[in-house]
Amino acid sequence: MGLYDRLRNRLTKTRSAISDGISGVFRGGRPMDDELLAELEALLYTSDLGPLATELIEELGRLHRRGELAGEEDVRLALRRKLLAELEHAGASGELPLTHSPTVVLIVGVNGSGKTTTIAKLAHRARQHGGKRVLVGACDTWRAAAADQLEIWTQRAGADIVRKHEGADPAAVAFETMDAALAKGSDVVLVDTAGRLHTQKNLMLELEKIQRVLAKRIEGAPHEVLLVLDGTNGQNAIQQAKLFAESVAITGVVVTKLDGTARGGAVFTIARELGLPVRYLGTGEALESLEPFEPEAFVDAILATGAQSTA
Questions:
Q1: How confident is the model at residue 307 (pLDDT cuts 50, 70, 90)?
Q2: Tens digits of per-residue pLDDT, 28-55?
Q3: If DSSP codes are grouped into helix, strand and coil, which group holds residue 278?
Q4: How far is it, in rounded angstroms, from Cα 123 to Cα 190?
Q5: Is residue 71 helix, strand or coil?
Q6: b/e map of 84-100 (b: 16 or more CB within 10 Å)?
Q7: Could you tell me whether strands 278-282 and 252-256 are parallel, antiparallel, or unpaired per DSSP bridges?
Q8: Which residues make beta-bridge pairs with 224?
Q9: What are phi and psi of 249, to 5 degrees?
Q10: Contact indicator for 87, 268 with CB cutoff of 8 Å
Q11: Pairing between strand 224-230 and 103-108?
């Protein structure tokens, strides 16, 4: 099963809201008019497209006045072009380039965003698709339960883990993780951090300290900084991201929980507001439920457009 088909199957709520919603608006061969465009705009807003929804409708209205939209399929294709262009502005996407030895990836995000399972999925993906030796550093030492859960998930993924007792210095754990990675010959190091509330400045300072430790031990580390965002959180996720960016140079985003929401349009809002590449989509709890983000497959899956949709 290809990526398009997997996304189409797993993003059913968003696809139903957008693709089926468009069909509903045009039901009975209804002609294009201002009322129809207003309904389309409301539909796009409910999928969390935000201000982009208005821009899309303005573009559709302009094309209609020029006689370039004859009906439903023309609307789908026009939306496809505009949405793909929107994602291109955010830059590269998809798989992380694991080109360093080891490649050190720092993982940040608030509690409840899906960070722990995302780390396990990344470890699983690196092992299954690249045969990589993966080491996880459990630098969230504030809650024993967090490290316990991470260890369980890491074992499921077949990766090694470095963890210390509750209350240990997170930067010291990061240092030990780097030592272990060099000793073991690890290919990929995934460094977990506490699920920081963005209001806690001391924790943001701790995050900066962890970065400095990684850089001192391995040149250029961290090579990637992934921010895990809950796709159901809308504008709140955007605000979290902007505050994290004040303390760490984020290189990519993982958007989680997209299988359980009809608001998958948040992906476009995240790409626009942050100007950061979306690297992966979380589409379920299983280790395999992490998909590299490919704009065409994503847009086609939620719009039911393009050549893939007829395959």
A1: very low
A2: 889 999 999 999 999 999 888 888 999 9
A3: strand
A4: 8
A5: coil
A6: eebbeebeebbebebeb
A7: parallel
A8: 105
A9: -85, 90
A10: yes
A11: parallel
From the list 243, 266, 262, the residue with the least C-alpha distance to 254 is: 266
Q: Global pTM?
A: 0.92
Find out whether 69 and 63 touch, Cβ atoms under 8 Å.
yes
Written as one letter, the residue type at 115 is K
Which token pair is 15? 């696809």
Residues 303 and 296 sit within 8 Å (Cβ to Cβ): no
Q: Which of 4-8, 63-67, 188-192, 200-204 has the lowest mean pLDDT?
A: 200-204
Closest CA to 256 of 237, 275, 269, 243: 237
66-70 contacts, C-beta under 8 A, 24 or more apart: 69/32
Structure tokens at 190: 């995934």
- CB 261 within 8 Å of CB 14: yes
User: In this structure, what DSSP letter does residue 249 have?
Assistant: -
Helix (H) or strand (E) holding 253: strand 252-256
SS3 of 92-140: the string is CCCCCCCCCCCEEEEEECCCCCCHHHHHHHHHHHHHHHHCCCEEEEECC
Please list, in sequence order, all residues whose beta carbon lies within 8 angstroms of the beta carbon of residue 230, skipping any fewer than 6 positions away: 112, 113, 114, 237, 256, 257
Reported as type and span, the H/E element at residue 292 is strand 290-292
Nearest-angstrom CA–CA distance, 129 and 94? 14
